[in-house]
DNA sequence: CTACTAATGAAGCGCTCCTTCGTAAGTCGA
DNA sequence: TCGACTTACGAAGGAGCGCTTCATTAGTAG
């Protein structure tokens, strides 16, 4: 049941304007006739719509493309640069930020290292530095920001308050959205990092176009993000994907197999042990290979649970360990094939470390789209 | 992003007509002014819309309600009796059927016992008898049937072919939809029974209005149905909810604890053993109680997996064993509370044995709605 | 320089919805 | 029984939006 109420004539115009914007965003600069054909309107009507949209500042004219037969057609494009979005990935060791235009085209990226045990203030000021860096790189000012979307570990409630975070103690019970709203004069969105990563892969990464996706966020901590019917699944209390809490899933302690592999040199820093084991496995070290096997044994149990419950089209392996997906994917596929009723595609992430930032940008774009395309609001005028 | 393309003026009228139909279906007979207020249209326009809908046979006038101030208003209602829907539950031991009008109001129900090892022909003819029974009870003819929706165990592909069915051997690889289309001259829909039951509970049962639901279909076989974001989740290969295939979920063998309880009398039929154990547990038999505990221990593992992965608002316990939910719910809640990050509501089914049939009817109604409310189709004229 | 092509812009038409008005059909109170 | 009141009905006039049509304009090709 499509949730559209009919009504006024102006509603029709509004619908048509939105369709025009959508087409322009999707297909770049278009001529009037092309736009008319795509939207199903006649050219004269389309003309009126574009005139109105130009008036409001959503659309602008670009030079016609020369070298065509006949009179050159005017071309119009969506003014993606009338506002900017920022995506932030708050990780344990790094804070990444990216700035994009309203189309989600990334214009600048920065990274700020932080210590895992950094205080709340240090962490927040690192966020501020990361975002300011993006603004400086892209020569935009904070007043041009429309939305800032943040991905972080832990369970975040609907209002953007951190409910639970095992990894970052300072985060616990923090009103993160509130803090960020004090820092930036724009809309603030908070979401779990694994979910954003899942979204990113389903939009721009390995799972482009896939409507049902399980994203494995594997690294020193284990997480999962679900895309169901093309949308990120949050769950009723925003706690979806927390399968590692279940002992039988064998996810919680799975990374220990890699950390405690006997062939890791003694002087290796604890946070590098897993990486060392994976590298050794790739080089053929039998002890490391055995550790990886044990790790994948465990990883496969929780993964199979998700696959059997959801029957997704695809499973994407992402997160820190996905750099070693060549070592992990084979055994994982083999184990899943044994248990799963219908074997999904199992692919490595193509966005790597960028996945959370990219997902945050996508999340912000989605939010904008929601605002634009929900019934009962006229398009907003744009400041010039 | 709402999936609506603007366009023609007639599209607007169509939208308004559909909104009117929807309101009439939801709120029963309505006066013109009430309808106008609900749809947002003015009364004169509403008048024209209803006139058109009456012309097409979708709507009819009912006598005005007397005893009001002022001139009595004409009232209109959706002609739910211009067509009929049938829902069928193909179980191991019983085939149930129900007939409803286009609103999903159930008008007749029948049940046909079948033996678990009945042949394909016997089973199909039992279906025919069940449906004919409904038609006779409600004095309708098969030509008035618009849709027949069937719920059955096993995995059914998109075209209505049974891919896998552990319980009913004759079902394997059967083109069930094809067979039924030969039997009935109307649309045929096939869906997994647990999913239909989940749908039923989320529409008319314990989970009314709940958008994220895990339905436990527990009985001699274990199944699960998921409602996510208000919609039944099928999965990419229609195999969602098959958690019992995973050994670690401990679902597959869970019923054995009830079947092999030592205090079950030796002369009990195998299919009644579990029921006996549950009854004994309710009466306080300590051996039976211990068996139930072991059963719930196992049931809780797979359930916790689903809850942690999906974070649903509610878990509903349904299926054959749900008659004993007073014995099962307490221990189940206790175990879930221990493992789950956010404890969902856990309630017993309110539809009991009817759940699959009711779900099938709901499924047929939904299908009708989809056809009605998807863009680009004019309302069909109704035979009078 | 002319023929051809393709987009433009203005004019006229039809449909759908809105507002406004006088009229009709009931109930309530004397 | 009759008048006042309440509420809905139905017709008329008007505005907004989109469609079709056609003369005009700005390019390319020969």
Automatic annotation (TrEMBL), chains A, B:
<dbReference type="InterPro" id="IPR036390">
    <property type="entry name" value="WH_DNA-bd_sf"/>
</dbReference>
<dbReference type="InterPro" id="IPR036388">
    <property type="entry name" value="WH-like_DNA-bd_sf"/>
</dbReference>
<dbReference type="GO" id="GO:0006355">
    <property type="term" value="P:regulation of DNA-templated transcription"/>
</dbReference>
<protein>
    <submittedName>
        <fullName>ROK family protein</fullName>
    </submittedName>
</protein>
<dbReference type="InterPro" id="IPR000600">
    <property type="entry name" value="ROK"/>
</dbReference>
<dbReference type="GO" id="GO:0003677">
    <property type="term" value="F:DNA binding"/>
</dbReference>
<dbReference type="Pfam" id="PF09339">
    <property type="entry name" value="HTH_IclR"/>
</dbReference>
<dbReference type="InterPro" id="IPR043129">
    <property type="entry name" value="ATPase_NBD"/>
</dbReference>
<comment type="similarity">
    <text>Belongs to the ROK (NagC/XylR) family.</text>
</comment>
<dbReference type="Pfam" id="PF00480">
    <property type="entry name" value="ROK"/>
</dbReference>
<dbReference type="InterPro" id="IPR005471">
    <property type="entry name" value="Tscrpt_reg_IclR_N"/>
</dbReference>
<feature type="domain" description="HTH iclR-type">
    <location>
        <begin position="26"/>
        <end position="62"/>
    </location>
</feature>
